[in-house]
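ugh ok fine here u go
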Amino acid sequence: MNRQDINALKNFDFLARSFARMHALGQPVNIDAVTGNMSDEQQAWFRERYDHYRKQAERARVVELR
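structure:
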């Protein structure tokens, strides 16, 4: 994997984490719009990371509310 691909993955990971946090805080997130211009491979990867971070953020939010 070249350096450009690694940087792109880091950027996508940051975006997935950011949108997941927004979702957990109750802000509407249209994941279809977010991934609309991505390739099928990028969409699958992004959605997997988004779901991971969304679950993580929702668990953290529950802990914060206790």
